[in-house]
Amino acid sequence: MSEVRVGGYADALLALKRRVHEARYEVQRHANTAMVLLYWDIGAVLAERAANADWGSKVVERLARNLSAEFPETKGFSRRNLRYMRSFAEAWPDRDLIVQRSVAQLPWGHIIELLTQLTGPDDRDWYADRDLEHGWTRAVLAHQISTRLRDREGASPSNFATSLERSDSELAQQITKDPFTLGFLAIDADTSERQLEDRLVERIIDTLRELGPGFSFVGRQVHFEIDGDDFYVDLLFFHVQQLRYVVVELKTTKFDPRHAGQLGFYVALVDDRLRDPGKHQPTVGMLLVSEKNETVVRYALAGAGQPLAVSRYELAPAVQASLPSEDALVRIAEADRGRSR
Fold first, then answer.
1. Which residues, listed in sequence order, are joined to residue 250 by a DSSP beta bridge?
2. Which of 75, 179, 194, 214 has the fewest Cβ atoms within 10 angstroms?
3. DSSP string covering 79-101, please?
């Protein structure tokens, strides 16, 4: 607390406020962990009794009534929640290890998402770690799971391994995804590149969330003039954790090797005009395309001199894409009306 005694009253007050916030957070964190362990204990008893066939099928409902009656001020003893507790204890069977894992520090609602949307223990621990690290809301966690973040993260084909220093190439690869899920844009596959760019900027918060932690928006159609010729970068970002510029080019068509040449040109331009070599890591480029031939991409990147990655983007979740179109639904309705006459 020595920091409180330094400076005048305003400094002391600021330090005290910060300490109060820290203490409240610690209390909440410990209280949350205690509740999570309580739920595990209840779930473990249910799992053990069910396995030994000591209790009948109505025991969960009865236990829910009894616990709610005994502790009316405590929410969370519903029949459904007790079943989640049992699933929780079965998913993480070692109680001593739970307190060492991220899941013990997550809100119960987040744990329910892990239990209901995932089946493998590795997947559950991976998403729990990312959830705790980035402070996701429950809705964001559900979105990241449903869009298969673990499979997509760092998956873009790139030439980073040959165009960057090894340690830096591994870092740069981590900020890529393949594919990028852009269903939040609410546009169809016939959109133009400018419309796609417009929507990404209009929904910049969602765009930054999909790009991942650390991305900061610099600008769109960033202008560069070279000896009387004008050039415009579609989207320019700065990664504040890796201290590098990231050039993003959009193509609503299938990948063409010429796209890599254009993106490489922009990366070299930003690297020369904006990057401070004493402070910043090398600039990288990410190309987002509607389709790509992996072999063609590999050959194109092998011949590129600048660090580039190529990713496909999806404008709608796979389940949404599989639904009938509006026109098809209208035709089905008209056909049904015709048969009913």
1. 288
2. 75
3. HHHHHHHHHHHHHS--HHHHTTS
Give the side-chain half-sphere CA count within 13 A for 24: 6
Say if CB 111 and CB 90 are below 8 A apart: no
CA atoms of 250 and 259, how far apart (whole Å): 10
What sign does the CA torsion over 240, 244, 250, 253 have? negative
- HSE at residue 131, side-chain half, CA atoms within 13 A, is 28
pLDDT tens for each residue of 40-75: 999 999 988 877 766 766 788 889 999 999 998 888
Q: What is the mean pLDDT of the chain?
A: 89
**First and final C-alpha spacing in the chain:** 83
What was the pLDDT predicted at 3? Answer: 45
Q: How far apart are CA 31 and CA 74, in angstroms?
A: 14
Amino acid at 87: S
SS3 159: coil
3 state DSSP class of 252: strand
Q: Which two tokens stand for residue 80?
A: 């459904």
Structure tokens at 255: 């990948």
User: For residues 185 and 319, is the Cβ–Cβ distance under 8 A?
Assistant: no
